[in-house]
Design goal:
heterodimer, A: about 425 residues, alpha/beta, D-Maltodextrin-Binding Protein, domain 2, 2 domains, 6-stranded mixed beta sheet, 4-stranded mixed beta sheet, 12 strands, B: mainly alpha, MetI-like fold, two-stranded antiparallel sheet, ABC transporter substrate-binding protein (chain A), Bact_solute-bd_prot1 (chain A)
């Protein structure tokens, strides 16, 4: 009895002597992604008795960023905040963050991070934020509708003209009311540029120096937009909103194809009552080969915390990169695992054999040409510019005339003018 | 009949809580907005550059802003007109002695109790281009496929309907209260004189209701200008294109999504002045026709 009491006393003393370090994490992962984040956090807390990570869902990416900014201004910022890729330049210039390479020290094996992800988020060869949920866009298609339309379900379109042709067949045969829909249209537009080795903005997409001019209203952008306008008029393209709402149209068989982030692969496969196929993005003939580009978000560490807390944060970030953890994250969402070791482990255990749709995005991005055009676009206030492009796409797809290229040029020129003003205003505050 | 307070300090003490609230939540933010509207501000607020009237000149040169202004005027006019006429119509019907009246009243009034987020979701689901029941019904009846995601005007119409519907309950409550204050004797006397019910409505009911109508006019206008944010955010996010981007939503986008605080502050100043002028005009001209009895 005495022994037990002494033991309990020691335990009590230890808990008093080791107060828990609490780390707050603000994230924007809703729906089926939310339990996946919670699983990571719970797993960490269970194995680290001296640290408690508290994960809070703080709304959409934009809302999460706004809240983090408001909290920072009130000196009440979280330790870690998840920020989407378009917020990259804003975060770099904010003066409110601690770069993760500083937390890491020299021993961390950055080489294990998957190439395109590392390149996308590196600034002068260093990572300022921790890769967390990275994805790229792929083409999903409904094999059953393909069959019903008399198309080979194992031969999805590889080019724009094939896609258009298949789309018309699908619509005309009545197999589905629409051919294709997109999630994140402006992002798909960016993807198209990278995928055909076209710069989206000057100064190598803003990676050499701050971008001051966008290039999306050049010939290539006009070609893409004009094609989409033609598709929309022939009911091949059905506009599906700015984020994930197009998934609904695809899942309810209203459209046969969908260009969407690979991060939807998990939820689409589990909800679809048809055979889901996935393949590489379609290409426009006559343009060079590039690569699809990374999208998603990273974890940023904010300034203004204690040394002890930073040590705890680094513990957590390392945990997130652990092979088993990042593998599980990939399995439950479809986002890329962050490291090459995790890809190998997934391969070894046969995951990709059972879930070939989870492999598509890897093959696409790892087989693409590593050109500077496809390393990722970095723009000041990219959030606002993406909004401008989204509006331009929505305007273009409502067009009812037949002079597609002229109208595409007019709309894109107009959008480029607005985007350039946004860039100019950004350099007004931060300098070039 | 006004009796003065014996103590000179007490009245000030009594109103001070509300004055403090007004100062903290209205006056100070207004002054701050005015101040910020002369600056360009970095997203994290660590850099302020004095730019004089840059934000304002940008505002009035921006075709997007002028477009947004026009959309807002159309939106507000439609929401106010629809809300008041339909509200009045339903109230007059509800003011009859019908069986089960209380149930009808509750049914009509509860739209006001629904939060904008829920109302927005309901309407967005009903008109969902791929799975909305209304879209389906219209497709089977008229073979017209409604897709407001690809039709800006349609999107605006749907948002107007949803916004008016949302405010209907509020209008009905006030009209019902107004209708119940109209003395029975007046209507009875008119009936004895042989007036038709249409004539009674226009010559007696409507003039006697005018204080309520005027009040609702202002409340509906303020609603249409300032309180439709939630509905639009859930339903269209200002799209497609900028088709439903009313001023208050544009302000939100520029301030909280695009993180351009200075520009958003300039917009809030302009919006404030604009609505103040509109309200003043209404008091000056519309109130002349109000009969307070």
């Amino acid at each position: 009895m005495k022994k037990v009491l002494v033991f309990l006393f020691i335990v009590l003393l230890m808990t008093v002597a080791l107060p828990k370090v609490t780390i707050t994490l603000w994230h924007a992962m809703s729906g089926s992604r939310l339990p996946a984040v919670e699983a990571i956090v719970n797993g960490f807390n269970a194995t680290h008795p001296d640290i408690e990570v508290v994960a809070q869902f703080t709304g959409s990416y934009a809302e999460t960023l706004t809240k983090a900014i408001a909290a920072y201004r009130a000196n009440d910022q979280p330790h870690i905040v998840q920020v989407y890729e378009v917020g990259l330049q804003t975060m770099l210039d904010s003066g409110a963050i601690v770069p993760v390479y500083e937390l890491a020290g020299p021993d961390f094996d950055w080489g294990d991070v998957i190439g395109p992800i590392l390149e996308y988020y590196s600034v002068n060869g260093k990572l300022y934020s921790m890769p967390f949920n990275s994805s790229t866009a792929i083409l999903y298609y409904n094999k059953d509708i393909f069959k019903a339309a008399g198309l080979d379900p194992n031969k999805p379109p590889t080019t724009f003209s094939e896609l258009y042709e298949y789309g018309r067949k699908i619509v005309e045969s009545g197999a589905a009311p629409g051919g294709i829909s997109f999630g994140w249209p402006a992002w798909v537009f960016e993807q198209m540029h990278a995928y055909h080795a076209q710069f989206y903005a000057n100064n190598e997409n803003g990676r050499k120096a701050k971008a001051t001019e966008v290039y999306f209203n050049k010939d290539f952008g006009i070609d893409v937009m004009a094609e989409w306008m033609k598709w929309a008029q022939d009911k091949v393209l059905v506009y599906g909103g700015r984020e994930y709402s197009a998934n609904q149209a695809f899942l309810s068989s209203q459209v046969a194809m969908l260009i969407q982030s690979t991060s939807s692969v998990g939820s689409i496969e589990s909800k679809a009552n048809f055979n889901v196929g996935t393949t590489f993005l379609p290409r426009i003939e006559g343009y060079p080969r590039g690569n699809s580009v990374i999208g998603g978000a990273t974890l940023w560490v904010m300034k203004g915390h204690t040394q002890k807390e930073y040590e705890a944060i680094w513990e957590f970030l390392q945990y997130v990169m652990k092979t088993e953890v990042t593998m599980q994250w990939h399995k439950s969402t479809g986002y890329f695992p962050a490291t090459n070791s995790a890809v190998k482990a997934l391969l070894d255990e046969g995951w990709f054999v059972e879930h070939p749709n989870h492999l598509t995005a890897f093959l696409q991005i790892l087989s693409g040409t590593r050109v500077p055009e496809a390393q990722g676009v970095r723009l000041g206030n990219f959030v606002a510019i993406r909004d401008v492009v989204d509006s331009a796409i929505e305007e273009a797809l409502q067009y009812t005339g037949t002079n597609y290229k002229k109208e595409a040029k007019r709309i894109l020129d107009n959008a480029a003018k607005k985007a350039n003003t946004i860039l100019e205003e950004y350099t007004m505050i931060y300098g070039k | 009949m006004q009796r003065r307070f014996p103590n000179k300090v007490l009245p000030y003490l009594l109103v001070s809580p509300s004055i403090v609230v007004v100062i903290i939540f209205l006056v100070i933010p207004t002054i701050q907005s005015l101040y910020m509207s002369f600056f360009r501000v970095s997203p994290f607020g660590d850099r302020l550059i004095f730019v004089k009237l840059y934000n304002f000149t940008k505002l009035f040169k921006s075709t997007d802003y002028v477009h947004s202004l026009l959309i807002t005027l159309v939106f507000a006019a439609a929401v106010v007109a629809l809300g008041i006429t339909i509200g009045l119509l339903i109230s007059v019907v509800l003011n009859q002695r019908l069986k089960g009246l209380n149930y009808y009243r509750t049914l009509f009034i509860w739209t006001y109790a629904i939060s904008p987020a829920v109302a927005g979701t309901i309407w967005a689901l009903m008109f969902d281009p791929s799975s909305g029941p209304i879209v389906y019904i219209i497709k089977t009846l008229f073979n017209v496929k409604l897709n407001w995601m690809m039709n800006g005007n349609l999107a605006l119409v749907i948002v107007i309907i949803a916004a008016s519907w949302k405010m209907l309950g509020y209008n009905i409550i006030f009209f019902l209260a107004g209708l119940q204050t109209i003395p029975e004797e007046l209507l009875e006397a008119a009936s004895i004189d042989g007036a038709s019910s249409v004539r009674k409505f226009f010559k007696i009911t409507l003039p006697l209701l005018s204080p309520t109508t005027f009040f609702l006019l202002i409340m509906n206008m303020l609603y249409a200008f300032f309180q439709v944010f939630g509905l639009i955010d859930i339903m269209t996010k200002g799209g497609p294109g900028n088709a439903t981007e009313v001023l208050v939503y544009k302000l939100y986008r520029d301030g909280f999504i695009n993180l351009d605080t200075g520009f958003a502050s300039a917009q809030s100043v302009v919006l404030f002045v604009f609505v103040a002028i509109l309200t003043a005009l209404q008091f000056k001209y519309a109130e002349r026709r109000v009969f307070y009895g």
